[in-house]
Specification:
Radius of gyration of chain A: 18 Å
Number of domains of chain A: 1
Order of helices and strands of chain A: HHHHEEHHHHHHHHHH
CATH superfamily of chain A: Farnesyl Diphosphate Synthase
Number of strands of chain A: 2
Strand content of chain A: under 5%
CATH class of chain A: Mainly Alpha
Distance between the termini of chain A: 10 Å
Oligomer: homodimer
Structural class of chain A: mainly alpha
Largest interface: A-B, 61 and 61 residues
Shape of chain A: globular
CATH topology of chain A: Farnesyl Diphosphate Synthase
Largest sheet of chain A: 2 strands, antiparallel
């Protein structure tokens, strides 16, 4: 595991847990369902990227000005996992080695828990981010909103569904559009929100976004490769699923070696975008390596 | 139809339509699905309440400082309708006289269209509200977020699902909790957001919220009464559905006359909350009458 992630995980886990303070008995069930998925572990890549980007521009670390944005990013990511796993979508029973949310709570509550996590993500960052110019917090809200909508997670997922039925007619361009929007936009928002809350200029935010776009695509290529090569036990989710549903993947379009080369190229471009920041970018660069080298 | 609503509808419909400017071909399908439900008509009660509340405190009318908040409120309401209608939830095929979103686009796209509308609602109000102190816009974001989460729409819906199986064990208190959170909180947010963007003080915002809480509950009592008395054709949705699924309703707990009296009492309390505003509250008071007198 990456040292920076290991260092930040306890802070992030605590902030995630602290984000639920409700003790209203009527909300017990939905809060249980939300926490079941939000607190299910995982590498917390998005919160870590957010905190690392913030630290490039701000000296304040404990608490980071971006800690609540980091929590909101994980809430959004968790919402997308809960909804993607539904029988009406990918119909997955297993996630991070545990039964998926709808298996435990039912499809209806899983849908509502996702909706609640999504709305709470906006409330959380707007309500709890203190000591930052409100205009910067609004900018964060805008970016979080954009990365879920038609040019974000949901739009990417719909294009993915449309392309699933098209078999070999899916081009590399389609695949890149899907992954840019399904995966990369949330990573772009992660570093952009961190940078903005740390005080970055628009140009600096833009450089961070380029970095994350490239990492995001590399992340997805690595995921496609892992789906072909790792076992269900190693992944903590159903392996070989892409091939089972005849899904277009990078290994399929480029071959396994081609996909590996593509991932390396993307990581190189990501690192290049960080060059202006020199030493300050050390944590983000190590995270880029971690993403391409990860075994699960 | 209420005169204030008739007056505001063209402005609201145009603002709703204008909120989609994307011409990216890859987003065509999801945007179609979002617009299908968002532009399906309806009384636009929430946007109208938002604009009317704003006008109590601001002279600026065209455009209203609250027009984008009004659009966001309708996006949130539409998301909740799309998700509620899903087979995994209420399983309704008909809404406003048209096939529901998932009947036309499939369950998967309907779920994603709801997610996209929800996230776009936050982006929209944060990005497009101009000429207002950013701290006030953040306050609006917080209230919109809260009214969808565990102490809002989603929490109310989960309690509703839990109570559906309990038959006669559901108390009037449970029913009020459900309707406060399923229905009233979004109306409260509608007037609160309008008032805040119009420049209201916290005490004025609080009075508007009390008004909307009472209207919201009255609205739900009226809805329960209509479900018992109106035909499917009149409603534009399946009538008698509550009784079919053995749902606890106000008429069931209080009798039809008791339910009617409860609705009138709630409207009287709503009007009382508006007394401090005198003439300025005329539009909101007429809306309260419209809500209790509506035939569909």
């Amino acid at each position: 595991m990456n040292a920076y992630i290991l260092n930040k995980l306890p802070v992030i886990e605590k902030a995630l847990d602290d984000s639920f303070t409700s003790d209203i008995p009527e909300t017990e069930r939905i809060v249980q369902s939300m926490k079941y998925s939000l607190m299910a572990g995982g590498k917390r890549i998005r919160p870590v990227l957010c905190l690392a980007a913030c630290e490039m521009f701000s000296d304040q670390q404990d608490p980071s000005p971006a800690i609540h944005a980091a929590v909101s990013l994980e809430m959004i990511h968790t919402m997308s996992l809960i909804h993607d796993d539904l029988p009406a979508m990918d119909n997955d029973d297993l996630r991070r080695g545990k039964p998926t949310n709808h298996v435990v709570y039912g499809d209806d509550i899983a849908i509502l828990a996702g909706d609640a996590l999504l709305s709470q993500s906006f409330q959380n960052v707007a309500q709890n981010t203190v000591g930052v110019d409100p205009a910067r917090v609004l900018d964060v809200v805008i970016r979080l909103g954009k990365c879920v909508g038609p040019v974000g997670l949901a739009g990417g997922q719909v294009m993915d569904l449309i392309c699933e039925g098209k078999g070999d007619d899916v081009s590399l361009q389609d695949l890149q559009w899907i992954h840019t929007h399904k995966t990369a936009t949330l990573l772009m928002a992660s570093v952009a929100c961190g940078a903005i809350l740390g005080g970055a200029t628009p140009e600096e935010v833009e450089a961070c976004e380029q970095f994350a776009l490239k990492i995001g695509l590399a992340f997805q290529v690595a995921d496609d490769i892992l789906d072909c090569t790792a076992s269900t036990e190693e992944l903590g989710k159903t392996a070989g699923k892409d091939e089972n549903v005849d899904k277009t993947t990078y290994p399929k379009l480029l071959g396994m070696d081609g996909a590996r080369a593509e991932a390396e190229q993307l990581v190189a471009e990501a690192k290049q975008a960080m060059e202006p920041f020199g030493e300050r970018a050390t944590a983000l660069l190590a995270l880029a390596d971690f993403i391409i080298d990860r075994k699960n």
